[in-house]
Amino acid sequence: MYHFNGLNTSLRSVGRFSPSNLSRQTRSLHLDGRNRLSSFWTPTQTGSPTHASQEDSHELLVRAGFLRQAHSGIFHLLPLGLRVQNKIEGLIDKHMFSVGATKVSLSSISSEELWQRSGRLEGRDSEFLRLQDRKGAKYLLSPTHEEEITEIVANAVKSYKDLPLRLYQVTRKYRDEARPRQGLLRGREFLMKDLYTFDVTEEQARQTYDQVRRAYSAFLDELNLPYLVANADSGSMGGNLSHEYHLASANGEDNIISCKQCDYSSNEELYSGFLGSQELNHIKPSTEQPLGSLLNSTSFISKDKTTLFTVITPSQGGPLNIHLLKKLHPDLDTSIEDPIKIWTALRSKSLPNLSETHIIDGRLAHLPLANPTGSTKTHSVSLTAPSETSTCPSCHRSGSLQTSTAIEIGHTFHLGTRYSLPLNAQVLSANNKLAPISMGCHGIGVSRLLAAAASLLMDQKGLNWPLKIAPFSATIVAAPAASAEDVAKVYDLLASASQQGTGTQSMAPLDVAIDDRDRPLGWKLNDADLIGYPFILVLGKAWKARGAVEVQCRRLGVKEEVQLESLVERLEEMGKKL
Questions:
Q1: What range defines the domain where residue 317 resides?
Q2: What are the Aminoacyl-transfer RNA synthetases class-II family profile domain coordinates in residue numbering (predicted)?
Q3: CB-based burial of residue 298 (10 Å sphere; 0-12 exposed, 13-18 middle, 19+ buried)?
């Protein structure tokens, strides 16, 4: 038989179970209304990785305690990551309010029937995460919400007097990526802001589109990061007008072609291959350079395996522009690795309806390149990717184009009646006639933006957040010589300045955290660098000797002493650059 009193006595006699020792081994929660890291969960992983020079931004976000992977392409956000996400959402709310948008929250589950009606269900089966209820009804986890929001508006809005209408949400989306990669940049579950606009006429819808574009630029300006806006292909979304918004990054998957002399900017998928007059007729064969040495030829086969395409370009022209080729010849299959081998096998069987086509680059139009065994199609454009000598399609200046790698974080689409017609979203116009609503759809990848910002500013010490979306604007780190009262004094000064609205339009209110964890000063400073606070405020030797705060800002390369009475002003001054 066990006696409780005796057991209790025996446990207390073992030192490691005593209440006093237990209290020294657990976290201390200080509930005084101040942001304290002792009360905030920051599960950073200590120590430097063995491959620090190759550590990517996703690995760094995990090591710095912002997120953890749950499954392939699916992630949990931890407190630090959630603070960044919430700040991005707060900025989005601000700029959506500026265009008169109202926030909604739509279900993540969408009916397959709606997608069938819009015509978007077919051909995209592999993208959907599907589910079916006990009654056999079929649903999707929504990758986007055009169908659902159009259905809601179609049932609620009947008159032109109810428009314009602008509705947005920030919600989880789902896509069954074949190869999830780069963490939050290419996941199967992601957070997006999508704004849907509804106007009476096409003209009004295009005016709305321009307003949204300006709001997007204002939003990105607040982040103080280099970004690109490019003409884009609308793809499966529909419509004939769209723009992409990118953060310039060496780790990006998109190539943006822009002009150094004008405002031309385009995704490589839309690049037209424009040729300037100086690029025409300049290739001339000679005894030293026979025609064959001036040409490159690349073979492809058609999707139905009945036509062999031979693309002929200048030998100095660079790689082929595959996007343009597929646009000019939709039946051309670029995925076949050895088209000549396949074509030779087909020819040996003497199959009917086989043909050959030569596709000629516009720079070779003046040369005798007729196909003796088939047809010849000469285009008036360059069939190779743009180079430093290419001509801008907009201002027609040569040598002005440049290609930048970038991460797409937003997209605006003018949809017109792409969804309102099949889903019967129409209103009674001023002349008493039913007319389909003209729509727009405008997205920002919230989780992509978090990952892209991390990728863009990281260095070997850790992350480096833009001030407006940093988990905390600053952390206060004190040496043993500084008292708890000293730390509280600095914190309260900064908190008071924020509450009084001292921050300017370009400077976010200071959001400060005290690092009061029971750790050495050096450990705290390394941890602060890893997490990427814009400012680290050290109360150390300068504080003890002169009452000065050591301000560290790694992004600006600043490490200086600032007197307490000048601290707010100095942080605001530096904050304008962050």
A1: 281-378
A2: 81-466
A3: middle
